[in-house]
Amino acid sequence: MSEEQLPTPDEAWRRMQEGNRRFVASTPQHPHQDVDRRADLTSGQRPVAALLGCSDSRLAAEIIFDLGLGDLFAIRNAGQMATDSAVASIEYAVALLEVPLLIVLAHDSCGAVRAAVDSTALDADPLPPHIWKLIAPIVPAARRVLRANGGTSVADIDAELVGVEHLHGTIAELLESSEIINEAVTSGRLGIIGAKYRLADGVAIPIVQVGLSDPDVPTLAKEQQ
What's the whole-number mean pLDDT along residues 155-174? Predict the structure, then answer.
């Protein structure tokens, strides 16, 4: 494929935001979706970003950011979990494809978060083993939200706050568990954005950042890195 100069982390994030704005305004350009692009990609790929997102069918990443073939290296599972396979896939994108940006994309009304919240009840029905293994890392976030709000039962847990807490925790886990990701951020060649997608209006709202300079987005707390 033709060699393209990769953008900086901030430039990559601006491109993602521009695409999301087009999607929200119902004016998508549908870039890189023609036969020429398909043919150009047979010799390689240079995605502008990697994305760890939820498998929810309402969260089609290339569509909501108005991207096309070869633009996004997407990894998806229920609850955008930092599983071994997800971390390895991100490391591939960072080390070999040299993506300048990683987006961790949560969304509202997440079934995985809801399952984790409901499982904290003492009388909760047991989940199938594979589902429990996947969503178990969200449970500590649910308990932190419960303690912070002074609640005493599942009814006192705000699932949307749990989703945000889990988003922060996922990024912290990626930085802690992967030397490749951590070094890329430290060197300045990789930025990370944690965002939350709103199903109703299609907006991807940035919640937290690492390694970018957007003044409107909070930086991940040091104690979480």
Answer: 93
Beta strands 191-197 and 204-210 are: antiparallel
β 191-197/72-77 pair status: unpaired
Listed in order, strand segments (DSSP E) in 32-138 are 49-54, 72-77, 101-107
Residue 220 included in any domain: no
Pairwise CA distance, residues 2 & 201, whole Å: 36
pLDDT of residue 3: 60
Going by C-alpha positions, the residue among 178, 210, 182 that lies closest to residue 195 is 210
Mean of pLDDT values over 210-222: 90
**Token digits of residue 103:** 């987006």
Assign residue 204 the CATH number of its domain.
3.40.1050.10
Task: Show the tokens assigned to 168.
Answer: 């922060």
> What is the rounded average pLDDT of the residues 46-74?
97
Strand extents, DSSP E, 9-149: 49-54, 72-77, 101-107
